[in-house]
From TrEMBL:
Forms a complex with SecD. Part of the essential Sec protein translocation apparatus which comprises SecA, SecYEG and auxiliary proteins SecDF. Other proteins may also be involved. GO terms for molecular function: protein-transporting ATPase activity. Belongs to the SecD/SecF family. SecF subfamily. GO terms for cellular component: plasma membrane. The keyword Ubl conjugation does not apply. The lineage of its organism: Bacteria, Candidatus Harrisoniibacteriota. Keywords: Cell membrane, Membrane, Protein transport, Translocation, Transmembrane, Transmembrane helix, Transport. It is found in: Cell membrane. This is Protein-export membrane protein SecF. The chain crosses the membrane at residues 9-30, 126-145, 157-179, 191-210, 243-260, 266-293. HAMAP family: SecF_B. Its main location: membrane.
Length: 295
């Protein structure tokens, strides 16, 4: 498969996805969850009565007085996860009494409150974590490819890796912004973990492809071999490995998405999207960028 020959098609497709994701983030924004903005996470099981999300949300708003509650029903159970603004212990007991009057017996499975100051600290640490991860990845790639300086400087491998990481991260984030607007998906610690997992998977896949290209450059005479041909050969030799590795993870994630806990559905969907996009970028984005920057 001559990937380099059709590189402009692949790069244009990626550019459209990235642009659409940026527009999604700019238009819809990212809805901060309790972990980052502060609030209360409350999980209850309704024993005596069958109701759906909207019914429970209506009771919370009209009878309890909760402001903008977010209600998620757990898979195959009458258990609900409720997210509301931070409430005191006194209000907690009052809300619980009202729900018992309206719905009968209730089992309280979880009640957690996080202050806004804790949310700000988590957000600050997450930002620093991303900065350190990206800096470390760029430095490592540049160091690993220091002996292959022709025809592309080693530091360019590091920059291209960062570009592909941005590509692989911004597309799932754009999808998450869209889901946040239409389905209420929130940015929380699971979102941050998913983003770090995507970055780790993406850089691993990209380095595998770059490493094969490096081996090709070592074996070939730089003066006599065509760089584009070597890159194309290196990519083709790693396609099967990259796709097979990704498919094993994708099958697991698909199973978890359909049969796993509802509370983790957005977390799983984000990693699934990042895995697919990361596999695509390591094959069809990173190497074509390498040949373009060589000029």
């Amino acid at each position: 498969m001559d990937i380099i020959k059709y590189k402009y098609i692949f790069l244009t497709f990626s550019g459209v996805l990235v642009l659409a994701s940026i527009v999604s983030i700019a238009v819809f924004g990212l809805k901060q969850g309790i972990d980052l903005a502060g609030g209360t996470l409350w999980q209850i099981k309704i024993v005596e009565k069958e109701i759906d999300n909207q019914e429970l949300k209506g009771i919370l708003q009209t009878k309890v007085g909760a402001t903008d509650p977010i209600v998620t029903r757990e898979t195959s159970s009458n258990s609900f996860l409720i997210r509301v603004k931070e409430i005191s212990e006194q209000d907690h007991q009052k809300y619980l009494d009202v729900l018992k009057q309206e719905l009968g017996q209730i089992e309280e499975l979880r009640f957690e409150s996080i202050g806004s100051s804790i949310g700000n600290e988590l957000r600050r640490r997450a930002i620093w974590a991303f900065i350190l991860v990206l800096t470390g990845i760029s430095a490592y790639v540049a160091f690993a490819f220091r002996k292959v300086s022709y025809p592309v400087k080693s530091w360019k491998y590091g920059i291209i890796t960062l570009v592909t990481l941005f590509h692989d991260a911004v597309i799932p984030v754009g999808l998450y912004a869209f889901l946040g607007w239409f389905r209420g998906a929130e940015v929380d610690t699971n979102f941050i973990v998913a983003l770090l997992v995507i970055i780790g998977f993406s850089v691993h896949d990209t380095i595998v492809v770059f490493d094969r290209i490096r081996e090709k450059l070592k074996l070939a005479s730089a003066a006599k071999s065509d760089f584009n041909t070597l890159v194309n050969q290196g990519v083709n030799e790693t396609i099967a490995r990259s796709v097979n590795t990704s498919l094993t993870l994708i099958f697991v994630l698909v199973a978890l998405y359909f049969f796993g806990p509802t509370a983790l559905s957005y977390f799983i969907l984000m990693i699934l999207t990042g895995t697919i996009v990361g596999t695509y970028s390591s094959i069809f984005v990173a190497s074509p960028l390498l040949t373009l920057w060589r000029r």
